[in-house]
Design brief:
The complex is a heterodimer of chains A (360) and B (396). Chain A contains 9 helices and 15 strands. Chain A has 360 residues and is α/β, with parallel strands linked by helices. In chain A, strands 1, 4, 6, 7, 8, 9, 10, 11, 12, 13, 14 and 15 form a 12-stranded mixed β-sheet that branches. In chain A, strands 3-2-5 form a 3-stranded mixed β-sheet. The longest helix of chain A has 22 residues. Chain B is an alpha/beta fold and 396 residues long. Helix content of chain B is 38%, strand content 19%. In chain B, strands 1-5-4-3-6-7 form a 6-stranded mixed β-sheet, with helices on both faces. In chain B, strands 10-11-9-8-12-13 form a 6-stranded parallel β-sheet. A two-stranded antiparallel sheet of chain B has the order 2-16. In chain B, helix 14 links the parallel strand 12 and strand 13. In chain B, helix 1 runs antiparallel to helix 2 and helix 1 crosses helix 5. Chain B starts with a strand and ends with a strand. Classes of the chains: A alpha/beta (360), B alpha/beta (396). The interface between A and B is large, with 43 and 59 residues.
Chain lengths: 360, 396
Amino acid sequence: MIADIAAADIYSLPASTKNAWLLEHLNALVQHHRQNCDAYRRLLNAWGMPKDGRAATLAALPALAAPLFKTLELRSVPASETYKTLYSSGTSGQRSHIVLDRDTAAAQTRALVRIMQHWLGPRRLPMLIIDHPELMASRAAFSARAAGVQGLSFLGCDHTFALHSDMTLNLEAVDRFCQKYADQKVLLFGFTFMVWECFLQRLADEGQLYHLPDGVLLHGGGWKKLQAQAIDNQTFKQRVQDIFGMSRVHDYYGMVEQVGAIFVACEQGHFHAPRFADVIIRSPGDWRPLPAGIPGVIEVLSVLPRSYPGHVLLTEDLGVLHGVDDCPCGRCGSYFNVLGRLPRADLRGCSDTFTTESRK
Amino acid sequence: MTATVRFPAGFAFDDWIGAPLAAPFAPSTVGCLAALSDRLVRDAALRPFPELTALGFWLRRGNLQHLQQRHLHPNRLHRPLGSVLHLTPGNVDTLFLYSGAISLLMGNRNLFRLSRRNREGQDRLIKVLQSLYSEPQWRTVLNRFVIADFPHDRNLLEQLCCDLDLRITWGGNATVQQVRTIPLAARARDIAFADKFSLCLLNARAVLEADSLTELLREFRNDAYMFGQQACASPRAVIWLGEDATAAQARFWKALETVLQADADLLTPSEQMDSLAAVQQLAAEGLTNRIDGIQSPWIKRAPVSSLNAAVEAQHAGGGLFFELQIGTLDELLPQLRPHHQTLTFWGIPREDILTWLKQTQVPGLDRVCPVGRALDFEGYWDGINLFSAFSRQMFC
């Protein structure tokens, strides 16, 4: 399905056509997961969803709260067909576990590549990965970071890691890459906080300057840590411009529970829903869908998750929808911004756990 | 590595151990707490913190005198214990103050480690304490009430615990077990308040036949929604007694929903997400077969066939209520366990409850009281008399 979509068309489908298409595929996925995932079926039954019922609108599709993936193993394929398990960052016990079979893993990669080809063009680009080589060590269990790097590596060639395994800057490798590809189109990729802390800051310390004006930096993972240091998007982009002469910096929003359907920020700074995914913003409390302009909790919908019921997911992120199909950048699709994580009341109950280890 | 003292400002952390002890219910201690009560009750700036006002009310001189009469025996010599470390809970800012006040009253020197959560209420309280400290007459008393932030450092805790006479740890279970691995002096007392779960018992017929539910709803609301249903005494399961439970439930929850509509900020978005995830998880695990109230911002209900550990582990507050139907009080017995703390009741005569409690060996339940009183504090916690716990009684 995804393979049939040309990169040019990732953001060309207007809501009038897209909604019906998405609804049909997502309703089919609801049935699929209901038949194959006991936990999902129990939830839908308790919720009173009729067995052969079809949601009339995208907003009527049952949404799973993302925390469920941390505490339950939700799978729609037998254990023997597990190809890979993805897990999110966080302390063990607080990590999401996502079960992929070969088909879903392949679909996710294909989707990611298609989306990124829209932003990068059809050719594979020399790729500088702002992370360390040991990231991909385990084949069976992947962190969100590793999954992101692996998926995107299909878009690149001459993959070069910018950091040593102790997270310090591998200046020789970066020098070599930037000199070899000076003035050419390249792809830089990494997680937002790491790009700033381990890469941009360290390069600035060294006083390094390179010439990569045609390059693209793709980064994601959230601004929380940088906000704590009062670093905003403007500052981040300016630093990239200063060091590389590069102006194409794209933030992306994605999560391990829905790898593949990433939302990339356009030139206007808004995240766009690709052809096979969408977002709904909901009011915390009664969970009704909110119109553009009113902040709420982000729900993400994607036709990719087949091996696990992650197709309609209520995240723990706050966001605001700006509109559908009418972004000044010219692309179709819902476009939105992310406002940050839901401020957490933290752990349940009295505890304020006193760890037994010293922290530096 | 050392702690940061938040109150009294400028107090050296290591000096807390040198503060002279006082006699239980010494006039200066009572006077100081009465003065604190005054400030808490009268300060208009504290209106957004009703729990601080409630604390102020409890600390009023009249109540302190009543407590003295109740807990000091004229024929015994009461003495303080000495140095007390309080590892306070994160969910209810003010709980530690009630027990802390009792420890202070009994003459001990106290060190409080505050949770890193709930800073706003803490900051307010510390401001009030600081203003009290500016009056020289209260300093000696307040030097026995040191509040500090501790880094997460086992070494520091180990050093502190060597010299304690009493260590009191407020949950949860994991924290208690970890703290217990830190040795105390052999003679020292160790009290822990672990995870608890609380219930509300409603007489179905009474709910159906009452002319007005206004008072019940108001009292239930106070019990359940103060602190976002996070306190261990907050009712998290509603037990319906008698026939017509289904009709009574319909009437009760519908009426409660109407009452709560007036309160936009009853639960935070985070609490909403917690109760939504909890109720979905319950259903996904097969612990409930029906979830009601996904669209309600305040009430989510899940019928359960029993209150077992798996069910209770899912609860995180946020307006979620497990529901159980029973025909007679005796049917409640197999559901009760030692970690069940508070049972509130309505529509059942107190004598009937008392008879039932006396006739049966009820496991668990530290407090049984009318709906509305769940969060009241009376000097007993989890079945322990804190006045005794914080003092010695000499026999001569």
